[in-house]
Design a protein that fits this description.
heterodimer; A: 177 residues; mainly alpha; elongated; B: 104 residues; 5 helices
Chain lengths: 177, 104
């Protein structure tokens, strides 16, 4: 079993950065939900906030890496136009999808949405990371900011989930090889 | 702790997302705009859309951050406006929506 360089970068984009984001999202969510001064000792709050800063920073960095690698490395291979007369479209995922009306929607709807929606996630994740670093241990006292943060992180997760599912389906239908 | 810088970050995020979505819809509607956003031949118009969207977001963050640096800003209304801008951003990047404006 071998990976082509295109498959490698596609896997890095989706599996390492995409799934990594989802893993650290759950950590961020758990840390946020348990961050209450009444529920933790002072040492517990300090430890929780350090871990929250790490996980918040990681989801922001991973979401940026996912869209940068996805857009600038993988997407050009996906949208490459085959030379005239090409009959084997296996190396041209976009053209392969568009050539078959049964699956063309995965480009016209799926990829068109994914390529745009993906860029929404790192902006939201960066705002979340900023709030985590700005407030730090004060998050235990700032209920409104903590719940704002909770909603922001959940929105980022839902959007990342949509992008991830679309990516997985498109890759199954027309892999970048 | 002043809420101004946090409010600036949240609102700038909303502005950046709405700007990105509106730029995407405009690119779909105006072929010459889409062509002008093709800053990378390999990536296509997405290159210009994303870089421009990020530039708007960062500029909004910088300006709001400076304006609200030492101010106490009510976070509730800022979150509501940002949520509306987020909906605008998501809607304007949704293909069935921007296809309504697609140039033939």
């Amino acid at each position: 079993m071998q990976f082509t360089s295109r498959e490698f970068w596609t896997a890095i984009h989706g599996m390492a950065f995409g799934f990594g984001f989802i893993l650290f999202f759950t950590a961020t969510l758990a840390l946020l939900l348990t961050l209450r001064s009444g529920a933790l000792t002072a040492q517990g709050v300090r430890t929780n906030v350090i871990l929250l800063k790490i996980s918040g920073l990681v989801i922001a960095v991973l979401s940026w890496l996912a869209v940068i690698v996805g857009t600038w490395f993988v997407y050009p291979w996906y949208r490459a136009v085959p030379p005239q007369g090409t009959t084997d479209l296996s190396g041209f995922p976009r053209s392969r999808l568009l050539a078959n009306t049964a699956v063309s929607g995965w480009h016209n709807f799926g990829m068109e949405w994914k390529e745009h929606l993906g860029w929404v996630v790192p902006i939201i994740a960066t705002v979340a990371a900023y709030l985590i670093f700005r407030y730090g241990e004060k998050l235990t006292e700032e209920n409104r900011i903590r719940w704002t943060l909770f909603v922001i992180v959940c929105v980022a997760f839902v959007l990342a989930g949509i992008v991830g599912v679309l990516g997985a389906i498109i890759t199954k239908e027309a892999p970048v090889v | 702790m002043k809420t101004g810088p946090s409010a600036a970050a949240v609102l700038a995020g909303g502005i950046g997302l709405a700007a990105f979505g509106i730029i995407s819809t405009l690119a779909e509607a105006i072929a010459s705009f889409s062509k002008a956003l093709t800053w990378s031949k390999a990536v296509g118009a997405l290159s210009g859309k994303t870089i421009l969207g990020i530039a708007v977001w960062l500029a909004a963050w910088l300006l709001l951050g400076l304006a609200w640096k030492d101010r106490e800003v009510k976070i509730g209304p800022v979150v509501v406006v940002s949520a509306i801008l987020l909906v605008v951003g998501v809607l304007t990047t949704f293909p069935p929506f921007f296809d309504l404006f697609a140039a033939d």
